[in-house]
Design brief:
Elements: E1 6-10, H1 17-30, E2 40-44, H2 50-59, E3 65-68, H3 85-90, E4 95-98, H4 101-106, H5 111-123, E5 127-132, H6 136-140, H7 144-155, H8 161-164, E6 168-171, H9 185-203, H10 205-210, E7 213-216, H11 221-228, E8 235-238, H12 245-255
Parallel strand pairs: 1-2, 1-8, 2-3, 3-4, 4-5, 5-6, 6-7, 7-8
Helix pairs in contact: 1-2, 1-12, 5-7, 7-9, 11-12
The chain binds glyceraldehyde-3-phosphate.
Glyceraldehyde-3-phosphate is lined by residues 10, 100, 172, 177-178, 216-219, 237-241.
Active site: 100, 172
Function: Involved in the gluconeogenesis. Catalyzes stereospecifically the conversion of dihydroxyacetone phosphate (DHAP) to D-glyceraldehyde-3-phosphate (G3P).
Catalytic activity: D-glyceraldehyde 3-phosphate = dihydroxyacetone phosphate
Length: 260
């Protein structure tokens, strides 16, 4: 089954709201419209940039979507510092990154909490980009497939097949994030394939065939084409390389079968 690739830029805690407008506009002008038939392009800026990004995108009717980098598992109320799924949706977000390894390690988020966030995001019409991946020690011990499928099960716990069908998965080996050490295309394919087979086993073939599974971890123009050529890799979650708009446009074009 053909799945349209998704390239999502996770800006992490970079770029203020004024810089964000410049980056989105440069990305739009650098990537010819024809490529959007072959790739979905999204940016996930910090919360404080979302309104500005929305305005820039709407002003030029850009075919770029955007999302948050986290949301609360709660509906609303006394949760100082948190941002709700409803607030993101109201700002026009399509996506929300959930369970990123930086939130799992820095903020102690576990699978159970991530599963609650995924459910809340879906309830409000957001598409969660559910991140999971093994650390270096697990990889060295050869436990990466078991680790990732267990994280998948735990982070989707309690969801129906219909709900799981609306999730994007991002396989991000922790040892490849921001390190310049990209997984080989075979490494990426091995885990993305195992995740898809696990979805097939638990949620059925229609879900397994429809869900997009991205790879993330030091993705750049030089490796994106080989990564998305893998049968079970349906795009990329891009950190550092998404901050520079012309380079990110080139990366998106290559994922769409380009060159730019
Ligand atoms: O969410 C994105 C990932 O953490 C990858 O970041 P990176 O491309 O800077 O390695």
């Amino acid at each position: 089954m053909a799945r349209k690739p998704l390239i999502a830029g996770n800006w992490k805690m970079n770029l203020n709201h004024l810089e964000a407008i410049g980056v989105v506009q440069k990305l739009y002008f650098a990537l010819p419209t024809k490529y959007y038939d072959h790739v979905d392009v999204a940016v996930c800026p910090p919360f404080t940039d979302l309104r500005s990004v929305q305005t820039a995108i709407d002003a030029d009717s850009m075919p770029i979507t955007y999302g948050g980098q986290d949301c609360s598992p709660e509906e609303s109320g006394a949760f100082t510092g948190d941002v709700s799924a409803a607030m993101l949706r109201k700002l026009g977000c399509t996506y929300v990154v959930l369970g990123h390894s930086e939130r799992r390690s820095v903020h102690g988020e576990d699978d159970a909490l991530v599963a609650r966030k995924v459910a809340k995001a879906l309830e409000h019409g957001l598409t969660p980009i559910l991140c999971l991946g093994e650390g270096e020690e697990v990889r060295d011990a050869g436990g990466h497939v078991e680790h990732c499928t267990a994280q998948l099960d735990g982070s989707l716990k309690g969801l129906t097949a219909e709900q799981v069908g609306r999730v994007v998965i991002a396989y991000e080996p922790v040892w490849a994030i921001g390190t310049g050490k990209t997984a080989t295309t075979q490494d990426a394919q091995e885990v993305c394939h195992a995740l898809r087979e696990r979805l097939r086993e638990v949620h059925g073939p229609a879900v397994a065939d429809a869900v997009r599974i991205l790879y993330g971890g030091s993705v750049k123009s030089g490796n994106v084409k080989d990564l998305v050529a893998q049968a079970d890799v349906d795009g990329a979650l891009v950190g550092g390389a998404s901050l520079e708009p012309e380079g990110f446009a080139e990366l998106c074009a290559l994922a769409a079968g380009g060159p730019l």
